[in-house]
Batch of 2 targets.
Target 1
Amino acid sequence: MFQYNLFSQPEEKIFDAVYCVIIRESTILFRTAMAIALLGSISCTTKVQLESPTTAEPESKSNLNSSGSNEQNIAFISEFQKITVVEKLEHPWSMAWLPDGAMLITERPGRLRIVRDGILDPTPIAGVPQVFAVSQGGLLDVSVHPRFAENRWIYLTYSHGDRSANRTRIARARLEKNTLEDLKVIFEVSQAKPGAQHFGSRIVWLPDGTLVMSIGDGGNPPIEFNGEFIRQQAQNRNSHLGKVIRLNEDGSIPSNNPFATSTDVKPAVWSYGHRNIQGMTLDPTRNRVWATEHGSRGGDELNLIEEGENYGWPVVTHSREYSGGMISPEKSRPGLIDPKVIWTPSIAPSGLAFYNGDRFPQWRGNLFAGGLVSQDIRRLELDEAGNVIGQHSIPVGQRVRDVRQGPDGLLYVLSDEPNGQLIRLEPVGG
Ligand SMILES: [Ca+2]
């Protein structure tokens, strides 16, 4: 029952009008089917399915089996309670904590908010850069420098420009009281793109003090660049599109980046062949970077990101065009890194957290992946090698934009709504 949006848009995509008609009509039929499925799926609450990490459902399948229940049989979780901490956030996108416990939240239209002791300050933080806030674009990630107490740096990612030419940027500034000072753009994508899709962009700090950041592939067809679909730029290592990049804290390029000395590769590139990563996190216990990536129709991915590797988009994919057409006949190829999880139909993955707190000891070492379309959080159990050996759903009932572990060891969730919420997950009984 989580993948009822098989025919609807997994992100916030702009469709050709003809697709929208198809989608609307299909959705009506599908919702009718889902109403039936809902009645039949209450018993799903006790089912547990250990998903084969490299086996996807064929895209041609419906997400309903003959008895009308969900094929993936992902278990529901009821070991927690949801507490709404803050409301009236306009499409919140990301959250981060300051050392004093205050919390920063970005709103995609271009505001940076602060929550102190559970209370949202009605006045946004001043000095935020102007953003291109349309569709998927706007003010995106916020990240606090690991040594914020010394330097007061915070980092913001956002889309800059207009509909005809825009780029993902990262800027840093010092947070002094309720104002950003010394704001400086430390990196921007080298090539402009049109449209309002696929900006990325999550920031993760690595233990060595560098940061990695995700950048989308430039958008869906019919957007072109150099006479081919712009998505092909994900395989062009001389472009920042469709990449994870790695930077020093001031935006300079680390000399030990995997392609730092190559003449035909952008030296910031850390990994490539990505469509649009909107969830990324560090497992600090094993020093592993995990990322969730949107497919087109189906084929969303969880990947273990390693430097210098090619993650395949759009050469290999389990995803199809929104029209249903084929993107690639190949799903895997030697030398290209396979995902650890494939979600077909799409969950539309958003924020990603690695849990190592003590409030949910049974969840230590698990990943938590938000879903915009699935309106839930997927709890993913990992083995030592980084294979996913279990998947469970925590229903939220709203589009989930971000999931993070708070300094208190609880899980925090942002919902992507005009009246978005900050929600805290607590163990049952507090
Ligand atoms: Ca891939």
Note: Residues 1-10, 12-71 have pLDDT under 50 and may be disordered.
Target 2
Amino acid sequence: MPQSSESQSLRVHRKGRKLTLRFFSVSPCLRGKTLFSKQLTFFAFLLLFTVSPSCSFMKKDTTGLPQKYKVDVEQLQVRSDVKITKKDPLFQELTQLRQEISDLLELPAPNRPVIVHLFKDEDRYSEYMQKQHPNLPARRAFFIGSPTELAVYAHWGPSMAEDLRHEYTHGVLHASLHTVPLWLDEGIAEYFETRTRDSKRRHPEHSPKLALAISNGWSPDLLRLEKIETVSEMHREDYQEAWAWVHYFIHDCPDGRAMLVDYCDALKISNQSPGFAAQVYEHVPAAEVRLASYITSELGNNNVVQADGQSVE
Ligand SMILES: [Zn+2]
């Protein structure tokens, strides 16, 4: 079950009429087991995207991008080597996914389009990424938010649907919110990457691993998690915990979804993410104990039903 790749998000803010880079926050997600290596280097990424004042936008060679098939619907733009139409199930899935995310978190209409670049296979995708983003680590898919676009890079293959669901979720969040804290960004993307029919939407990989961690004495810690600001600090276990918190707020915590919605409201206008853990501790006494109990009693059940109807252990 792939979980791990890195998407980057360059969070930029507009000041006046000029596009200025106030700060960078790289928020990679770890996707693609086989390609999983280490976190990308923050400074290399900084260097990669720093533009001089005289350069209006980052120059990018687009000749290698998929351009054969183009489908645009509202704020979703798909560019693919392989034929795709508006009736393609995958396209419909992304459209539905955006609606699902927006409904759950009561997000405003996206103010920027998300472009999905779909390469025909891994070789062509890898060749493009190595040429255009030589400093990025090898990953199965990327989300890169830049001053000019919110872009998902992926390729056709067995993991495409999952990769797109994860990376496109980042795109939807960043198209609707002014800022997104790393833990929430990844927790929500992990939440929506699954296609389970299980009403609980348990993650076939995270659920058993978290239950095992609890049995081995591990405890969740939201305050610690939300202090993580860079990819280099965020490890695979942190993605699991981020997923667990999001899952808990949505499915079990009283008023949990409302707290997430209110928090997203604040993120629509915030330049810097306000703290969330303090709000949680105020409204949910012993939140960590409750989450641990939830993981053990609910998420630890391995009988997860996938979209194809099969149960996985
Ligand atoms: Zn991610």
Note: The longest helix spans residues 89-105.
